[in-house]
Amino acid sequence: MPEEGNRPSPERDQTDDSLRTERRNVDEALKVPLLEVQDDADVVLQRARTTADGVLAAAREKADERAPHYGQERIAEARDREDATLRAERASADDSLQHEREETLLALSRLRPLEREKTDRYLLTERIRSDVEIAHRDDFLGIVSHDLRNLLSGIVLSATQLTDRAPSSAEGDHTRESAARIQRYSARMNRLIGDLVDVASIDAGKLSVTRSRGDISETIDEAVDMFRGLAERKGITLQSPVRRPLAAVFDHDRVIQVLANLITNAIKFTEAGGTIVVQDEPVEQRVRISVRDSGIGIPSDKLETVFERFWQVGKNDVRGVGLGLYISRCIVEAHGGEIRVDSTPGTGSTFWFTLA
Q: What is the pLDDT of residues 122-162, one digit of tens each?
């Protein structure tokens, strides 16, 4: 059965993570001003009490100066009454302040769920709207891609007929060359359509992967045979070392798609006289497949971005739209594997991925 990623899309997961992070930040942000206000209130209260104590101490000093005119016993009683009144007033003020703080915290605790509920309702509405729009987009893309492929099939068929009917002459040779270009352009257009459909499936979390046990070595040989002619026309040696059968669980067509992306990229960036080697090897309960070339290589600061959407070697690079490596990464990850690249500018690159 196809293993479709009926899970939330990466963008939606990222949105949820961002929302949770933002909520934590908001909670912390609400705490900080409240704590600052409370600290400020404590400082002000302490200052007021210090001032009051100073005034009281000064008053008592004056009272002590007049003590001979008054009885010490009467002064002590008055001071006890004043101290008791002061303690009572301070206790009352502390109780009022604590009550006010509790009321503030309670109000915030009641406000936060309401705000979150409002945000969740808005997010749910936006998600429903987004899902509907994505469904319409996918339907439209499916119809358009089907129609475009039908048209491309007609173009390829017509080009094939032109080749078959071309006479054995200079004019016929020119016709065959033109027909061959038409077929190559059609193949590139068909691949681009497939990439766009795959990207839409990835965005919707529905990239189809059907895995079964097979010999990965045979799949590699199949991919190498597909592109050996293209490499030879460019003067590049494309080879796969002789090896024993190696079993793995994988989607044959999807792995061919990954290998096609890696091999064609290697051909694009390898000069005539260069070499491309495709091989596999067992590595810790997994299979590691690599495509090594002697091309121009990739700068070290670009190694982490080559698998992103629309990545290209340079701004003016016109050798593709930069979706192949991104789709390859998603396919490999759907297999539970990983894909990486090791490269040194001027000496070549090695793209490799693993399968269970």
A: 777 777 777 777 667 667 767 777 788 888 888 889 988 98
Nearest CA among 301, 281, 304 for reference residue 352: 281
State pLDDT tens for residues 203-251: 777 788 899 999 999 999 999 999 999 999 999 999 998 778 899 999 9
Q: Three-state SS for 214? A: strand
CA distance 60 to 29: 46
Closest CA to 72 of 83, 60, 84: 60
Distance CA 300, CA 309 (A): 18
Q: Give the separation between CA 320 and CA 236, rounded to whole angstroms.
A: 20
CATH topology of domain 212-355: Heat Shock Protein 90 (3.30.565)
Can you give the three-state secondary structure of 274-299, one letter per residue? CEEEEEEEEECCEEEEEEEECCCCCC
Structure tokens at 27: 């909670």
Q: How many CB atoms lie within 10 A of CB 236?
A: 22
Residue type, 201: S
- Strand, coil or helix: what is 26? helix
For residues 329-348, b (16+ Cβ closer than 10 Å) or e, as one string?
Answer: bbbbbbbebebbbebeeeeb
What are the Cα distances from residue 145, in Å, to 48, 136, 148, 198, 322?
78, 14, 5, 11, 19
Question: Measured between alpha carbons, how far is residue 151 from residues 68, 70, 142, 274 in Å?
Answer: 118, 117, 14, 37
* pTM: predicted TM-score of the whole model, two decimal places: 0.58
